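Recall that a protein's primary structure is simply its ordered list of amino acids. Everything else, from secondary elements to tertiary packing, is in principle encoded there. The following example makes that idea concrete.
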Amino acid sequence: MNIQLLFSCFLAFILSNYNLCSQEQLGLRLDNFSGVNGVVLNPAANLTSPFRFDINLASAGFFIDNNYGHIRNTHLFHLIKNGKDPDNLINGVYVPNDVPTEESWLLFDYFDNKKLKYASASMHLMGPSFSIKLNNGYSFSFISALRAAGSSHKIPSNADFYHIDRIPFGESIDIAPSNAAGMVWSEFGINFAPTFFTYNGKLGFGITAKYLSGYEGAFVETPRTLQITQLPGDSLVLENGLINFGFTDSNTNTDIDPAVRRNGQGFSFDVGAVMTIEGEEDGYIWKLGASILDIGKINFSKNTQLHQIAQPNDLTLGTLPLNQYSGFADLTDYVKLLSQQTLGDSLASRVGNSFSIGLPTAASLQADYQFYPNFYVNATLVQRLKFNAQAIGRDNILAVTPRYNSRWISASLSLILRNYQQLRTGFSVRLAWFVIGSDNLGSWIGRSTFTGADVFFGLKVNPFRTGPWKFASGRGKGTKCYDF
């Protein structure tokens, strides 16, 4: 058996089964005029918005990244152009960097280092959503979204391809416990945030309660150290094997017609606080925020399979036809084959019909400083909080973002440290009601080592006049169209 394929399938089991292509979409969240979009990062964020109301018509973010493998010398446009032909996808493991290659080739390779590995992907489609600010300091918002996310963090460094490839036959490899999870779900949320005046600014609190519908979900975990030994003849010896996994089979079971089905439900909430310190000029000098995001889970109870491979003795696992694996629709058949080869019965691994997957919970801190009128610098920290193996892990983010903000135009440039390993550059621009940007600008420009891509955009409607909503005569502060 090609052990490279075994570990590739461990990641692909979660990530490739959803058509996922920014994790945090900073350009949509940090703008002073972000309105209801800012509530996603901090439920109290709308309290500092100058708008009486804000309507998100549609916004979307797509993100994928990893430090396990890469494609050499390419960028996203080059990848899209040449990826249409499968003959251009070349295994570059044994192709030296100094060997001339065709312009159209996409050489995939693996990183060779001692770092913990990760792979993550997310999609966030925010549908019709709105927020309203009242003149009593209260803010109300409604949020609708379709989301997808999958991840595996802390993959042991000795599970990377080059480490395993160098181990001779008959020598065992200890793989530390690891896990991965992913799902596709929709959410509808109600946000409420009151604000209070302080001696030198404002203090606000916010909470968003959301109802969740789960469509597809999957997880896999190895809760104890797994010992693997390669043998000649494409075989592996597994020792101390314990693998727990589950997945929805709406689209992986040949006995069920493929369809989009609601297979689970759940609830979640976000909480946050924002404090401003104001100066003599309009706006604030400092804005400080803290939030906890995506506290909750989805219970999948329809069209689900829960499995366990509990190894009673040392087991020699022969060749599995992984090269013939053609996609998500074959998953149920391959699980039966794995159960047959490990437990002697194609149905023995199935131990239940329901499971839960936790949302990508995280804690976030934000600090915003206005050092000159309309010019700001922001620091944002997002720290993953993962309480069990059957939960999606969010990427850790530390970002510093200087930006220019005005009513009709904004621009920002971010320096982003992802998972405390990889440094990225992000950029976004807003023209009136349209926002576009990326938290990984390097994936779009310049041929380099390609590990993933990121893009986000948004279209919204908000008033020309700013200020809280007043139900009487109520006029806010006017802003002329041509004022920048």
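The chain has two domains: 3-68+115-461, 75-110. Residues 75-110 form one domain.
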